[in-house]
Specification:
Layout lengths: L2 E5 L4 H12 L6 E6 L19 E5 L5 H8 L4 E4 L6 H6 L2 H20 L4 E7 L23 H20 L3 E6 L2 E2 L8 H10 L4 E4 L5 E3 L1 E2 H14 L5 E4 L4 E3 H11 L7 E4 L14 H7 L7 H14 L1 H7 L3 H10 L5
Parallel strand pairs: 1-2, 1-4, 2-3, 4-5, 5-6, 6-11, 7-10, 8-13
Antiparallel strand pairs: 9-12
Helix pairs in contact: 1-7, 2-4, 4-5, 6-8
This protein binds nicotinamide-adenine-dinucleotide (NAD) and 2'deoxy-thymidine-5'-diphospho-alpha-D-glucose.
2'deoxy-thymidine-5'-diphospho-alpha-D-glucose binds next to helix 6 and strand 8.
Length: 338
C-alpha cells in the first residue's frame, strides 16, 4: 500500500484529485491530504471523504520545515498542488506567491530528498511558457518565459526541482496543464465567477476586448493526467497537459450567458489585467504518445454540466462569496461591476 501526500488537497484541483483516488475501489493507496486552509482552501471540498478508511486530513503549511520533515517520514509519494494560484492576486501582491510557490516547494523537496521518497509530482502550469502569438503551441521544449508574478513563481519552482533532479537524481516529474474548469473551483476564476455573478443577477467583468485565448480542460481530465504521470512518467521529465480546446474568453462568456438564459447586456468590458497573456495553447502529444493519456470530457458537455453544478450547489459558493471575499472583489473590480 503506497502512502501519497497530497498538498493543497482542500483546493479546487487537489480536492478533485483526492476524491478521484478515494472513489477508485480498485486502488489501495492511502491518501494523506495536507492543506493550510488559506482563503482558497475549503474543508467542504472534501465533505463525505473525511472518514474514508484510506484518507487522513492534516492541517499544515508546506513552508513549515519541522512539520513537513516529520510528515514526510511517513510517505512514499508527494503530489504537490499547494500554491497561491490566482494571477490577479499576484499582481496586487507577490509575497505569498514567492513564499509558498517557491519557498514551500523547496521545503517539500528537501524533506522528500532526506526521506528518500520514491516520486515527487509537481503540478505546474502552462503559464510558465508565457504568451503565444496567433499561431503555434507550447511544447515541453518551449522556453520558459513567465509574464506574471504567479507564473514566475511557478517557473522558479520547476527550475529548482529540475536542478534537484540533475544534481541529486531527485525523483521529480512535472506536469504543465492549461486552464481547468469543473466543480469546486474558487469563484475568483473566470468560469465560476461569471456563473455565480449571473446567478446573483450581477454583470460579468470581461477584461479588455475579451479576445484572450485559453485552452480549457475539465478538472477530471487533469486529475487523470496527474495520476498517469505519477504512475508512469519518467523521472526528470516534463509533461504538457491540455484539452486541445482553445476558446476566447468572450465566447466562453456567451456560452455561459446562453445556458443561463441571459443576454449580452450582462457583459461589462472592464480594465484589462496588467501584462495580460494573450494566448495559451498546449501540444499534449507527449502525454498521448508516451503515456497513452487523452482527455475524455468534451467541452460542449463539460461546460453545461459545470454550470449546472454551480446552480445545484449554491450553498457552497454563497458561503464563499461573503465576508472576506467581497473585500477582494472590491479591490479587484471596484465599482466596475454590480
Ligand atoms: P487553489 O487556489 O484552488 O488551491 C490551492 C490550495 O493550496 C488551497 O487549498 C490552499 O489552501 C492551499 N495552500 C496554499 N498555500 C499553502 C501552504 N503554504 N501550505 C499548504 N497549503 C497551501 O488552486 P488550484 O486551482 O486547485 O491549483 C492547484 C495547483 O494546480 C496549483 O499549483 C496551480 O498552480 C496548478 N494549476 C492550476 C490550474 C488551474 O486552471 N486552476 C491549471 C494548471 C495548474
Ligand atoms: O493556464 C493555467 C492557469 O489557469 C493556472 O496556472 C492558474 O492557476 C489559473 O488561475 C488559470 O489562470 P488564468 O489567469 O488563465 O485564469 P482566470 O480564470 O483568472 O482567467 C481566465 C481568463 O479570463 C484570462 O484571460 C483572464 C480572463 N478574466 C478573468 C477574470 C477573473 C476576465 O476576463 N475577467 C475576470 O474577471
Amino acid at each position: 500500500m503506497r502512502k501519497i501526500l497530497v498538498t493543497g488537497a482542500a483546493g479546487f484541483i487537489g480536492s478533485n484529485f483526492v476524491r478521484m483516488m478515494l472513489d477508485d475501489a480498485s486502488c489501495d493507496d492511502k491518501i494523506i491530504s495536507l492543506d493550510s486552509l488559506t482563503y482558497a482552501g475549503n474543508l467542504a471540498n472534501l465533505d463525505g471523504y473525511h472518514d474514508h478508511d484510506r484518507h487522513t486530513f492534516v492541517k499544515g503549511d508546506i513552508c513549515d520545515e519541522a512539520f513537513i520533515d516529520q510528515l514526510m517520514a511517513e510517505v512514499d509519494i508527494v503530489v504537490n498542488f499547494a500554491a497561491e494560484s490566482h494571477v490577479d492576486r499576484s499582481i496586487h501582491s507577490s509575497s505569498d506567491f514567492i513564499r509558498t510557490n517557491i519557498g514551500g516547494t523547496q521545503v517539500l523537496a528537501d524533506a522528500a530528498k532526506k526521506h528518500n521518497i520514491t516520486r515527487f509530482v509537481q503540478v505546474s502550469t502552462d503559464e510558465v511558457y508565457g504568451s503565444l502569438g496567433k499561431t503555434g503551441l507550447f511544447s515541453e521544449a518551449t522556453s520558459i518565459k513567465p509574464n506574471s508574478p504567479y507564473s514566475a513563481s511557478k517557473a522558479s519552482a520547476d527550475l529548482l526541482l529540475l536542478a534537484y533532479f540533475h544534481t541529486h537524481s531527485f525523483p521529480v516529474v512535472i506536469t504543465r496543464c492549461s486552464n481547468n474548469y469543473g466543480p469546486y473551483q474558487f469563484p475568483e476564476k473566470l468560469i465560476p465567477l461569471f456563473v455565480t455573478n449571473l446567478l446573483e443577477d450581477k454583470k460579468v467583468p470581461v477584461y479588455g476586448d475579451g479576445m484572450q485565448i485559453r485552452d480549457w480542460l475539465h478538472v477530471d481530465d487533469h486529475c487523470s493526467a496527474i495520476r498517469t504521470v505519477m504512475d508512469n512518467g519518467i523521472e526528470g521529465e516534463v509533461y504538457n497537459v491540455g484539452g486541445n480546446n482553445e476558446q476566447p474568453n468572450i465566447e466562453i462568456t456567451k456560452m455561459i450567458l446562453k445556458h443561463l438564459g441571459k443576454d449580452d447586456t450582462y457583459i461589462e468590458h472592464v480594465t484589462d489585467r496588467l501584462g495580460h497573456d494573450r494566448r495559451y495553447a498546449i501540444d499534449a502529444s507527449k502525454m498521448k504518445e508516451k503515456l497513452g493519456w487523452e482527455p475524455q470530457v468534451n467541452f460542449d458537455q463539460g461546460l453545461p454540466a459545470t454550470i449546472d453544478w454551480y446552480i445545484n450547489n449554491s450553498s457552497w459558493w454563497s458561503a464563499i462569496k461573503s465576508g472576506e471575499y467581497m473585500n477582494y472583489y472590491e479591490k479587484q473590480y471596484g465599482t466596475q461591476t454590480s
